[in-house]
Specification:
417 residues; alpha/beta; Urease, subunit C, domain 1; TIM Barrel; 2 domains; eight-stranded parallel β-sheet; four-stranded mixed β-sheet
Length: 417
């Protein structure tokens, strides 16, 4: 931390915090030093930058626990003709020839600019490392991670291509090892697609343990109830002592199990220390295309997981690419979908894209309490419900006690409608 940041002081006044009260917050070097009257008193005693946020709701800044920056904004270049998961994979692979270092870097940087404007200060991205694409994308995002360090925290996870087992997976395994040596922060992959799915899960978990890295796998992104690699994952994570550093993303097929089976698996995840990330927009878009009535929602067993005590976070997943062509790159979009599709309360939905997302990513806990290093998203509105519904672009984003983005919106309306 620089001397400038250590000495910088910022007073936020007039904003409404989650409890509904209007409180002042005094930050010193990103740390909340005082709240309320005490914050105003301390601010009066020294040099402080003041920011009046009257009419804004103050929120713990959101985190994106699951993105794919290598694919971001590809939706205008290649289309998903079938609309399903395999169609999205094939469409993306058709673009590999054009996805060089510069292309990936530029698209990813443009998408991060949108993400910061919307309030994200920490993002985990998966980056495909497979035959046909190579490591250009991974290297571009490792470089981008360093270039944006003063604005946001970016975690880069090397996503093993499939297949990753057997002779056919030889080159993909080599690329994964090279990606880790090139600076990836963690291990990803979609082993449930591998012909030898259980072996693929075991291999990736073992590698994470050997390299002392976090692991976040795409698991069972299907409505096929017979796909349950999440159980193998829980068992392997427990066996290799990776509890608290392991994430199971998607887990769609878990939502197709009986309640009894889902509860048993949820307890296995809790015991192993595995968190779950649900990706509502992408899975609502990709899954459930087989029939015309009785369409399933394509989400994991969220109520059962939360009831069991599994850490459950929500993510945006794909940002305007063949897997999800219309993403707003907005935490409020993810939170709103958790309300309407998963029946979360607005408070629980926002918690999933902020506090729980931080937990999944292994970040320091954040809250509006003295002593916490808390990034802030301030949105124009009167309450959490209001800002989630309206989702105004009128936002202020504060990271480490400094304003990193501010968007002002002017509304003009004619006297008569």
């Amino acid at each position: 931390m620089t001397d400038t940041l250590k000495s910088s002081r910022l007073l936020l006044s007039g904003g409404t915090i989650g409890s509904g009260s209007t409180e002042s917050l005094l930050f010193t070097g990103g740390r909340i030093d005082a709240i309320g009257v005490d914050a105003e008193r301390q601010a009066a005693e020294g040099k402080v930058e003041r920011l009046d946020l009257s009419g804004y709701v103050l929120l713990v800044a959101p985190c994106e626990p699951h993105a794919h920056l290598d694919k971001a904004l590809l939706g205008e270049r290649v289309a998903n003709s079938s609309g399903d998961l395999i169609g999205a994979i094939n469409a993306t692979r058709s673009a590999y020839a054009s996805m060089n270092w510069t292309d990936v870097y530029d698209r990813a940087r443009r998408s991060l600019e949108i993400a910061v404007q919307r309030g994200y200060t920490s993002i985990r991205t998966h980056v495909t490392c497979e035959e046909g694409l190579g490591l250009d994308a991974l290297r571009a995002l490792v470089r981008l991670r360093e270039d944006v360090r003063d604005t946001l925290d970016l975690q880069v996870f090397a996503m093993a291509g499939y297949p990753v087992t057997g002779r056919d997976g030889t080159r993909n395994r080599e690329l994964l090892y090279e990606a880790l040596d090139a600076g990836a922060d963690g291990i990803g992959g979609a082993p449930w697609l591998d012909l030898h799915a259980s072996s693929a899960v075991a291999m990736l978990v073992r590698l994470a343990a050997e390299r002392d890295l976090m692991i976040d796998l795409h698991l069972d992104e299907t409505l096929d109830s017979t796909s349950l690699t999440v159980r193998t994952f829980a068992s392997e994570v427990a066996a290799h002592g990776l509890g608290g550093r392991a994430t199971a993303s998607h887990c769609v097929s878990l939502g197709q199990q009986s309640v009894a089976t889902a509860r048993t698996i949820a307890q296995e995840l809790v015991a192993a220390g595995v968190a779950v990330v649900t990706l509502p927009q992408t899975n609502l878009y990709l899954q459930g295309r087989e029939g015309t009535t009785g369409t399933p929602r394509g989400l994991t067993a969220l109520s059962v997981l939360r009831e069991a005590g599994v850490v459950v976070a929500g993510g945006g997943d794909n940002w305007r690419d063949p897997f999800n062509p219309t993403s707003r790159i907005d935490p409020m979009e993810t939170a709103s979908l958790l309300v309407v599709a998963a029946h979360f309360s607005p408070a629980d939905a926002y918690d999933a894209v902020s506090v729980r997302a931080r937990e999944v990513m292994g970040l320091t806990p954040a809250s509006f309490e003295v002593g916490c290093y808390t990034d802030v998203l301030a949105m124009k509105g009167s309450s959490l419900n209001d800002v989630m519904a309206h989702s105004s672009d009128d936002r202020v984003v504060i990271r480490r006690g400094q304003v990193i983005s501010r968007t002002r919106v002017v509304h003009e309306i004619a006297p008569r409608l």
